[in-house]
Amino acid sequence: TAPELLRNFSIIAHIDHGKSTLADRMLQATGVVQPRDMRAQYLDRMDIERERGITIKSQAVRMPWAVEGPDGAVVHALNMIDTPGHVDFSYEVNRSLAACEGAVLLVDAAQGIQAQTLANLYMAIEGDLTIIPVLNKIDLPAAEPERHAEEIASLIGCEPEEVLKVSGKTGLGVPELLDRIVEAVPPPVGDPSAPARAMIFDSVYDTYRGVVTYVRVVDGALKPRERIEMLSTGAVHDLLEIGVISPEPKPSGGLGAGEVGYLITGVKDVRQSKVGDTVTSAAAPATEPLAGYQDPKPMVFSGLFPVDGSDFPALRDALDRLKLNDAALTYEPETSVALGFGFRCGYLGLLHLEIIRERLEREFNLDIISTAPSVVYEVTMEDRSTHTVTNPSEFPEGKVSSVSEPVVRATILTPSEFVGTVMELCQSRRGAMQGMDYLSETRVEMHYILPLAEIVFDFFDALKSRTRGYASLDYEMDGAQDANLVKVDILLNGEKVDAFSAIVHRDGAYSYGVMMTKRLKDLIPRQQFEVPVQAAIGTRVIARETIRALRKDMLAKCYGGDITRKRKLLEKQKEGKKRMKAIGRVDVPQEAFIAALGAD
Ligand code: GDP
Ligand code: MG
């Protein structure tokens, strides 16, 4: 297809404002998906995406759309890239935007602009994309399209009349939107006669087809059966198949400048097709790579342990597989006294963690337990040595001079009546206010610097419940700052239980200690002797509970009695033994640790 007939765009929006639903209607309106094949969230291909109703991976699909020209109808090729909305996955949005010239900025007509609307809009503006403002869900009785059109217009600097109004549910306004995309989004500019350069923006492993690589061709063209070269490594592969997704992969005669599509080589390993790399022709290679992407850095760490120790190799294999198309996931082996062999894993955020955990359980059938999430701390000792700590149990011993923790720049959008309660919440989470803007008389944008550790747990839930669901949050990393942080250890009969060590602010140390000691006291079965459960900062005990010893007469119950009962008891004990972890002289069923980690 000639570049002037191409339009590459993506849909950006706050989560749940209707991207995937609108994408469905576009697939239908352009005839790419026949009515009988239609299913909701067509492009969300992973089970977990469909069930949770969220998009995790970006998807690219090509749709034909005819518009009337002076000499009759002209068929254009629209490439739509659906993107995830959650903050954890904003690097995916960035990657998608780099492959587009335009962005449909979708806003729920009942809710108006939300925090991720702004974050995504700024990303699109930074990428120099043409923005098409659209209000969605105008079928809703609660929709206020006029009011929100004004807000959007004043935000992006256009007329309120220019804001399109659609319903992804009924399909109303969708053909007009497609017309507007053709009219307003500029066609891609690239040099068709230059050596081929194509940007890899995603690559996935498909059981039947091997590695499928998604590319956007910038200059030149790629042809079927030619030999291609990966610019970063110089590796050369045969191009077995090349084509477009519409909505399933369709081989084509090649991809020209500006086109978006997929390619398949004989390669079996996704790592050979690195996201951000430039693909060129081996016969006439380009010399300059395209500007790549920055690998996302994990922000939150936690230990993952198989409940059944013999699953350790299976867990390793599963992580290897997930890592293939998830550059943000990191892991290395870790051993815990309480939980055995496992991995220390790094994630983009809590949702990412949850999704990895769920995929391990569902796709790989593994039973796993994860330890409390932790952020990355930089610890400086009095002797000037420094340590990077992602695991509280590895917090250095000795004289600490300072500890710094990552902080985020958070944007919170809220109806003005909740400003006070949002401030209270942020203050209780050690936030520092940076400023406040009124978007309109009733909507306020608040800026805070907050420790990441305070955000990753339940901040979002707390914000939602205090504002009856009306406030929204977006954040980006903003370096690190020193804080008064201490490590709290939990001791069982004087022995440290590594999985429960935590790095907390000094003001929160006592309540963490009280909570964990109580919890463990309730969960750990009585022993023959009295067992103290303590929380300590260094050698100083800050909380204590006691598990009282079993009474003699209770022990006596186990003797005598009828023989079958005794045998049963013995068998039960044997089974239990497998899972017992010895912390010093105390035998603890692993289940107790798991329950203590899992409870809220
Ligand atoms: P995404 O997170 O932006 O991809 O949002 P979804 O497309 O998954 O939509 C979120 C929710 O809004 C779903 O329950 C949709 O059924 C609903 N929804 C989407 N578009 C419309 C619309 O135009 N009207 C109505 N009434 N509901 C919609
Ligand atoms: Mg979606």
TrEMBL record:
Pfam families: EFG_C (PF00679), GTP_EFTU (PF00009), GTP_EFTU_D2 (PF03144), LepA_C (PF06421). It is a peripheral membrane protein. Keywords: Cell membrane, Elongation factor, GTP-binding, Hydrolase, Membrane, Nucleotide-binding, Protein biosynthesis. Its main location: membrane. CDD domains: EF4_II, EF4_III, LepA, lepA_C. GO terms for biological process: positive regulation of translation. GTP binds at D16, H17, G18, K19, S20, T21, N136, K137, I138, D139. Signal peptide: none annotated. GO terms for molecular function: GTP binding; GTPase activity; ribosome binding; translation elongation factor activity. Belongs to the TRAFAC class translation factor GTPase superfamily. Classic translation factor GTPase family. LepA subfamily. This is Elongation factor 4.
